[in-house]
Specification:
Split_barrel_FMN-bd, signal, about 190 residues, 5 helices, seven-stranded antiparallel sheet, CREG_beta-barrel, Pyridoxamine 5'-phosphate oxidase family protein, alpha+beta, Pnp Oxidase, Chain A
């Protein structure tokens, strides 16, 4: 119960500070025919998405939660998470498979289109969610990226043991045109200039 209460307080803090985030002015999206660049653009421009992990306490069912993130520069999203968060608590060290989904709709660059229409892009990255070694250079890179996009993270209580996590991207799924979903190669996604 105490963990749930702390989570509710953290969620309230998160929602109350959204207006303080470093929201970039979205650039126009790339040519929608370029699936890799379109996916990379969406990850680079977005501030939040839905991180889904496997809930081992629910028999391995998927569990998704809206989380803030930052792109570290090569397309692997970084997260600042605590094990009090159900997304992380459900994330099992036995099975790190996870997915992360973002929509173009919050960027307000798809006009009045409904979120589900293909002309309003959505991307799902799948891979392994790993906790970055806090003493590594990568943890510093992740923190700088996260705190740059979400300055309120710097004020979160140390007692809650937030850590930098990263989704090691293994596959990319995108719908952004009226055609079947596309799966650009991860290397093409990483190399795309946005």
């Amino acid at each position: 119960m105490k963990g749930v209460l702390i989570y509710i307080v953290l969620s309230s803090l998160f929602l109350s500070t959204l207006s303080q985030e470093s929201v970039p002015t979205p650039r126009p999206p790339p040519n929608p025919q370029d699936a890799a660049a379109s996916a990379r653009y969406l990850i680079a421009q977005s501030l939040w998405g839905v991180l889904s992990t496997l809930a081992y306490d629910m028999g391995g069912a998927p569990f998704g939660n809206a989380v803030s993130f930052a792109d570290g520069g090569i397309g692997d999203p970084y997260f600042y998470l605590t094990f009090i968060d159900p997304t992380t608590a459900n994330y099992s060290l036995k099975d790190q498979r996870s997915s992360f989904t973002v929509s173009q709709h919050p960027l307000q660059t798809c006009g009045v289109n409904d979120t589900q229409l293909p002309s309003c892009a959505r991307v799902t990255l799948t891979g392994k969610l790993i906790m970055v070694d806090e003493n590594s250079d990568e943890a510093g890179i992740g923190k700088r990226a996260l705190f740059g996009r979400h300055p309120h993270f710097a004020g979160l209580p140390r007692s809650l043991n937030f850590n930098v996590f990263k989704l090691q991207v293994e596959s990319v799924f995108i719908i952004n045109i009226f055609k079947p979903p596309r799966f650009p190669k991860v290397d093409d996604y990483r190399r795309a200039k946005v």
